[in-house]
Amino acid sequence: MKNLLIRNCNTSHFKFVSFILLLLMFSGCLSIKPSTTKSGKNYFETFYVGEEGTQYFINPILFKDEKSSEDLILDITFRYRNEIKDSAIVNFSIKSSIIYKTIDSLKLSNKDIKIESDQLVLLFNEKSKTGFTSRYSTRFSLKEIKEMFNNDAWEMIIYNQNKITTYKPHRKTIRAINTVRDRVFVLM
Question: What is the pLDDT of residue 82?
C-alpha cells in the first residue's frame, strides 16, 4: 500500500492536481475580506502617545460662506487621558479669491456656547489656480471644544479688518460633528 502511494505521488498528474488545489486554497484565503462597521473612523484618527494617553485628530471638516462662496476647512488635534486638562489645537484654511494676510479674531458658536480667539497664527498663504489658501492656527480649551460638539448647528465667524465673514457647516460636516461627538467626546 505504501509503495502504491509513493508511486502515485511521483506522477506529474498528481503534482499538477496538488499544485492547482494549493493555488485555489491560497487565492481563496486572499479574497476573504473582513466585515466592516460604521465606526466613524473616517472622521477622526487616534494615536497612542504613552503616558499622555491618546492623541485625537479630527479630520478636516468643511464650512461654507454662502455670500462669497468661500470655503473654510477646519481640523482639531488634542490629547486626552482620563480627564480634560489640556487645550485643543484648531487649524483652519480659508480658500478664497482674496488673500487673508491677517485675521483679527475667530468665533465658533452654536446655541449652547460661544468661544473666541484673537491669538491666531498665520501658518502660510498659498496661491492656486482658483485663488488663495490661507492657513491659520489657534488654541481653545478642550472643555469648550467638547461643549461645541454637543450641538451640530455650528457657526464660524472670521473678523478681518472691519469685514465679517460667516461660515455655516456643510451637510456632511453636520454628520461628522455628530459622529465625532458619539465616538470620541462621549468617552470624556
Answer: 85
Nearest to 103 by CA among 141, 72, 68, 79: 72
Regarding whether 148 and 103 lie in a shared domain, the answer is: yes
**Do 174 and 128 fall within a single domain?**
yes
Render pLDDT for 131-143 as a digit per residue (tens, 0 to 9).
Answer: 999 999 999 999 9
3-state secondary structure of 5: helix
Domain contains 39: no
Q: Where in the sequence is the domain holding 147, given as residue range(s)?
A: 44-187
Do residue 179 and residue 152 come from a single domain?
yes
Cβ-based neighbours of 185, under 8 Å, separated by 6 or more? 146, 149, 150
On whether both 114 and 172 belong to a single domain, the answer is yes
pTM: 0.76
- The dihedral built from the CA positions of residue 79, 82, 87 and 90, taken in this order, carries a sign that is positive
HEC assignment per residue over 25-84: HHHHHHHCCCCCCCCCCCCEEEEECHHHCEEEEEEEEEEEECCCCEEEEEEEEEEEECEC
> How many domains are contained in the chain?
2
Report the C-alpha gap between 43 and 171 in whole angstroms: 14
